[in-house]
Write a structure and sequence with these properties.
The chain is mainly alpha-helical and 495 residues long. 56% of the residues lie in helices and 6% in strands. The protein is elongated, with a radius of gyration of 26 Å. The strands form four sheets. It has a three-stranded antiparallel β-sheet with strand order 4-6-7. Strands 1-2 form a two-stranded parallel sheet. Strands 3-5 form a two-stranded antiparallel ribbon. One of its GO terms (molecular function) is ammonia-lyase activity.
Length: 495
Amino acid sequence: MITQLCLDRPLDAASLAAVAQGAPLTLGKAARERIADGRALVEAIIAQGIPAYGVNTGVGALVDRAVEPALQRRLSRQLIMSHACGIGAPLPEAEVRAIIAAQANNHAHGRSGVRIETVKALLALLAHRIVPEVPAGGSAGYLSHMAHIGLVLIGEGHAHMGGERVSGAEALRRAGLEPLVLEAKEGLSLLNGAPCATGLGALALARADRAITSADGVAALSIEALGWREDAFAQDVLALRKSPGIAATGAALRAWLAGSSRLGAGVRLQDALSLRAVPQVHGAVRDALAHVRTMVDVELASVTDNPVVLGTPDAPRAASEAHAVAAGLALALDALTTATAHLGMMSERRLDRLVNPMVSGLPAFLAAEAGVSSGYMIAQYAAAALVAENRRLAAPASLDGGITSALQEDYLSHQTAAALKALGVVGHVEQILGIELAAATEAHDIAIPAHERAPATARLHAHVRATIAPYADDRPMSDLMADAAALVRAGITGV
């Protein structure tokens, strides 16, 4: 059962990811009061003629151009139109929902000055499963993705609803909603802040969390097939390096391998690092993800709009700042990308040991009839290609820089690009782990009688075999790889 979430308190990374997957999100009394108070400040700023960026002025390098009250509603609408500059294929539904939820969360702090009706319109997109068509590319910072969402709110652009592509106006009509008429500041507030990177980052983090948990089980399956020495995973040995992630990984591996008859089955005094260093590498990934989780939670607890509204209706303030520059989030998401890529590197190296007869003691490439059959030979090539692509993608987006808006915006942290790269790398790692999972299951069929397996790995083997039949070059390997990646993406715990 999906629990309903409320914006009376800020979302965290886990709850935002839950909304992305379909959990309902509502406004409570406290959030409504904060939003109403913020809107009252905007109205007071307008009434008192206080200069405020994006309220009664242009934006970017046009900050010094005054916008009279009669044109402020038009400014809000035209900002949405002019900033809808996305390029490329549209984002999937979960990613779009994550961005919408993060923006609603941002407005619910009450410092943006939008109306309650505007936040309710965002939540209505989620409730009615209206998915604005949001091109993935074309954003140097954080503007274009939200602009495409804003288009649908005002009855423009396109959306997907029930698997069908329709106009924004038609999507609203089918849901019984009216196009939103934006008031002063609302166009800018719909565009601004760090909700795009925050939403996408929360999703990348949720998938990376599942990937690291899955990686422990997949590694255990491979380690058991190849034989291992238990002292490398012993609790007292691992405790010598101070890391919560190492301790958690060691405990997971001991649980996966407990009761196996393959303990010490190898003849090596010391195992290869791709086997022996699983606690150290998986543990480092866990520690890195803990930091990323903290940074995403900080973003959700923070106001990232510009300007923010403060004070009282008698003495309102519109403070121009740079909270939308989410450099901390960009750095964290670059770290998530690199950390998760290490999972793929380790997985591909274990996979190579499974299929390489020089070190595995198993049939070459796990092929049923080596020579006429190639088995997992080219699947390992595919994994190696994904590792190489991850290496290219792991270059830090936060260092890309760039100058926009006639020198007014002369620093860019590229947090949205960092989030998109993180999602791409996590997707590749899910595929690499899936290939290893399928190969390790095949190796168990060859090398380990069912009664000799650890109880936990035996359950995992059965879980895989319920979906994926043994491979004998009898069907396209790509189909098998896709099925195995889906198992990893769903999460492998103790099955």
